[in-house]
Automatic annotation (TrEMBL), chain A:
Lineage of source species: Eukaryota, Fungi, Dikarya, Ascomycota, Pezizomycotina
Top-rank taxon: Eukaryota
Species of the source: Xylona heveae (strain CBS 132557 / TC161)
EC number(s) stated in the UniProt entry for this protein: 2.1.1.233
Protein name as catalogued: Leucine carboxyl methyltransferase 1
Function: Methylates the carboxyl group of the C-terminal leucine residue of protein phosphatase 2A catalytic subunits to form alpha-leucine ester residues.
Keyword Transferase attached: yes
One Pfam family linked to the record: LCM
Membrane-spanning ranges: none
Entry keywords, A to Z: Methyltransferase, S-adenosyl-L-methionine, Transferase
UniProtKB/TrEMBL annotation, chain B:
InterPro entries: Calcineurin-like_PHP, Metallo-depent_PP-like, PPA2-like, Ser/Thr-sp_prot-phosphatase
GO cellular component, one term: protein phosphatase 4 complex
SMART domains, sorted: PP2Ac
EC number: 3.1.3.16
Protein name: Serine/threonine-protein phosphatase
Molecular function terms, GO-annotated: metal ion binding; protein serine/threonine phosphatase activity
Origin species: Xylona heveae (strain CBS 132557 / TC161)
Amino acid sequence: MSASQIPNLNTLRGPRLRGRGRGGGRGVPTGSSDQHSGDQVVQHTDQDATVSRLSAVELGYISDPFVKLFVAEGAQRRFPIINRGSYVRTSAIDVLVDRFLRTDLSRPKQLISLGAGSDTRYFRLATAYPQTPLLYHELDFSTNTKQKIATIKGSDLLRSLVAQAHDDDSAVQISEDGTALHSKSYHVHPIDLRTLRPQYEGSTPPPSLPGVDPHLPTLLLSECCLIYLPPVSADAVLKYFTEYIFPRTTPLSLILYEPINPSDSFGRVMVSNLAARGIVLQTLKRYSSLALQKERLRVMGFTSGQAAADVDFLWEKWIPEEEKERISQLEMLDELEEWTMLARHYCVAWGWRDGEEADTQSAFNGWKSLDVRRTEALV
Amino acid sequence: MSDLDRAIAQLRACRPIPEPQVRELCYKARELLIEEGNVVGVDAPVTVRIHTIPALRLALMNGLQICGDIHGQFHDLMELFRVGGDVPETNYLFMGDFVDRGFYSLESFLLLLCLKVRYPDRITLIRGNHESRQITTVYGFYDECLRKYGSANVWRYCCEVFDYLALGALVMGASNTLGTSTSTSTNESGTQLTEEEEIEIEILNSAGDVMSRIPRSMAASSDNHETVNSSPLSETSRGAPARSGPVGTGATSDSLGSVGNPGGAVLCVHGGLSPLVETVDKIRLLDRKQEVPHEGPMCDLLWSDPDEIEGWGLSPRGAGFLFGADIVKLFNHRNNLSLIARAHQLVMEGFKEMFDASIVTVWSAPNYCYRCGNVAAILELTEDGSNGGYIPRANGDVNRTGDLLGPVAAGGQISGPGRRYRVFEAAPQDSRGMPAKKPVADYFL
C-alpha cells in the first residue's frame, strides 16, 4: 500500500449516520398506516443506495460526476466490501447497457428504469453516447420523483442534459405539482408500480406512460426494485410491459439486480437484518436462485434468451485484470471471506425477446457472447 | 475497589471510561507490554480434576482459552467470557483483531487491556492486522473513538499500545489428551468400539455440553479437514459420534512422531507464516515496536493465510502470503511445534483444522459484522496434572508402521495437543440489560 492510499482522515470527520437519518428534508409525509410506512422505508432505500454509490465514487471506484448532486447530507464512507459491491453492480449493468446501445449504434433505443430514484444513469448515458438517439424513462413513487425533479431544476448541468439539443428550458415540461417531467429524451413518471397490470380492471385500462414508444428496441431495468413488491405485483409490472405496452413484435429486454440465496446462514441473517429495518424482500423466496431468476425471465416473456450471474462471478470474470489491480489499490480489502459470501447473495439477471427481428439482427446480439459459463454449470 | 477495578466494572457494562483514564491505562499497558518478548511464553495451566465435586470441578477445569478475532463485538465478547470462564479464574490468549467492524471496538479493547494490566499473567494479547493506524482508519475504530470522545486522542493512545503488542505466543506444556473416556460407539463400518480412548478433540456447545468427542485414533486416522470441521451445529454432528475412518486404522503417523517427544509447543499468531521466518527465534529478533509495515516478516505474521497450495502463493488480500501444508509441516518440525493456532479468517463453524491438524483457525466473532451468520469458537488447551504427557500407543491390532503415512511421521509431525473447542453463537441483542443499539449491517439496496 502506498502512502497515497493512507486515508485522508478529514474525509472521515463528517457526521457518520450509517444507515440512519436518510432522506432528511425529502418531504416525506409521516406514515399513518403500515402500508404507508412500509412504502416510506422502500422509498428510503434509494437514498441508502445513492450514499453507497457516492462513497464508491469519492474513493475512485466509479466515475460519476452526477451522483453527488443527489445526496443531501454529504459523503459517508462505506466499508471497502460495500464499495466493491457497488462497483461490480455498476460495472456489470454498464456492460449490458453498453452492449445494447452499441448494437447498431445509430438506431434509436429506449430505456425504462423501474424505481429509478436518484439513479444517474440517464445523465451518464446522455454524456457518453451523444450519437445514440435515446428515449429514457424513469418510474418511481411521486415522493421520489418530486425530489429528483427538484434536484434537476436546481442544477444547470442536469437541466442542460435534460433539455439536450434544445437551447431553451421550454422543451422541458414539469407538472404543476413537480412530480412529473417530460422532455424529448427524458421522462420522469410519478407512479406506484403496484398499479401497473396488463389487464383492464372493469372498464379501467392499465395506467398509461406518456412518451413511451411501443416500437423502439427497449431495455427495462430493475435495480433492487421489483423485489420490494409482492410477487403478484412484481409479475404484473413485467407483464404490463411485455403484454400490454409493447406489441410482441417489439424487441424487449430486462435487466434485474437483486439479492438471492435467502436460505443459507448469511441469507437468513440478511433477511432478518433487513426486516428489522422494515425492509421486506418480497420476491426473494420465489426467485431465490440464478436458475429461478432465469426461469422467471422466460415465463415473463423474455423468451429469446436468459442469463444470470452472481456478483462474485461478475467480479471474477467480467472485471478485467488491470481493473481488479486498480480497484485493489484503492482500498485494502481485508474482508475476503465476507466479500465472497456477500457477493454470492446478489445477482444480475437478464433476458430478452427479439420480437419480429431475425436472430442475426437481434437488438440484443451484443449479449450473446458474454461469459456466463459458471452460472450455467451451477444451474 | 481500585481505580482499575472500577474501570473494569464500568467497561464490563459497556460504558467507555474517561479520556484521562484511558491515557493512564494505555501508559501502564505499554510499560507492561514493553517487557514482553515478541513471542510471549504461555503455560497451559494445570487442570485439577475433582470429579466428585461438580461445582468445584467446573471452576478448576478451565485451562487456557485461545481466542480469535473479536472485532468490537462487545456483547459477544461477554458471551465468550461466559462460555470460556471468567477472568482471572480462566487464562486467556487473544490472537488479535480486537477492534474494527463492530460497534464497540473501544469498550472491547479497553476491557481486554484493563484485564491485561490487572491480571498480567492471566491474559495474553497479541497483535492482529487490525491493530494498526492505517487499517483502523478504514474499518471503523478511528471513527468510533472520534464519535465517542470528540477527538482522536484515545485512538492515538490505543495505537501506541498496538505498537507494543507481542507478535506471537508459544504455549508450552499442553496436554496431549483431554482425558480418557470409556465409550461404546458404533463406527461407520458397523463395528462396535468399546474401549478406553484418549480424547484428542472435544467440541462443546455454549452450555458446556459435549457435542462430539473424537478419540486420538480417529482424529488421526480420518481426514481431519472433514472430521473436525463438520459444523458443530449441523444435524449430523449434533450428539452423533464423530465421523471416523475405517476401523482399526487408528495407529498412524501421529503415534510414531510423538515417541519421546510428547506435546510440542503451540505457536499462536494472528495470520500465519512468512517466507522470511524459518524459525520462531527469528520472530524474537524483529523490531516490533512500530506501525505494521506493508511487507516483510512482521506484516506476513499478521496477514498471511494457509491455503490448499504447495509452497508459497500471493495473497489476494494485498499483504502477507498464502502458504501450503508443506510449509506448515516443515515449520512445525523445525521448531518442535505440534500445532499453529491462528485467527484472521472467518470460518463459519468457528474453527477449522487444516493440514492433518498441524494448523487451526480460530474465529471468535459470532455472526461477524452482524451479517455473516457464522458461529464462533475458542480453543481450550490444558495441562493434565495427572498425566505427565500423552503416551502414544497403537490402537490394538493394526499397526500401520511403514505404510504410506510413514514418511510424514519420519518427517517428525508431533502429536497435537488435546483440543477442546467451545462453540457459541451471537449474544442475544438485549442480553444482560446492555444498551440496545441495534447494529445496522450494510446491504445493497
